[in-house]
Amino acid sequence: MSRRSVFFIILGGVALGAVLGLVWAFWHGGGAASGPAPAPEPAPPPSQEAFDLYFPGGDGLLHAEARQLAVPADPRARARAIVLALLDGPRSGGLVRPFPQQVGLLDLYLTPDGVAYVDLGAEGMDRPPAGGSLAEMMRAYSVVDSLVLDLPEVDRVALLWNGVQPRSLSGHLDTSVALTVKRDLLAPGAARAAGRAASRPRAGG
Known about the structure:
Layout: H1 3-28, E1 47-56, E2 62-71, H2 75-88, E3 104-110, E4 115-121, H3 133-150, E5 156-161, H4 188-197
Parallel strand pairs: 4-5
Antiparallel strand pairs: 1-2, 3-4
């Protein structure tokens, strides 16, 4: 065999090896040379929106307090912002916070059929705070009305305490089922706000 033939055999082997190497890299490297992953698009910043928060008043009724909240588009995050604002307390005189100051929001999630599960709790409190029947109604429906009347994705609210849905918060109101708006607890101004909210399309509608 001539030197020239040997040279071409060696050259062909090198070329074949290069081709095989490229094929191996293609199949084991995802089909293409990987470069830096594209940066994720930033989430849009929260926008200021007007909500009606329903706080207990000294007359035993719920009063609507207009509030501007910075909220994202995500319904769950919007619901969280509403509940946190409720627990933070009212800005208007004559209204009170629905729960004692130490009560906080542990978790909140929404179901596709329009139920908001609101998990409340407080350090060192195994049970919800005690109270009479009116206080219990004010606490429960402050949360219920604020979520149902402000968010079209929410039709009902299930109240939980430390991750468990109790039969009652204070022994008077059945909270073993999800609750919806109780309009006879709304003050006249709050009823007008609720009437405006009634025209919004609801969850599943």
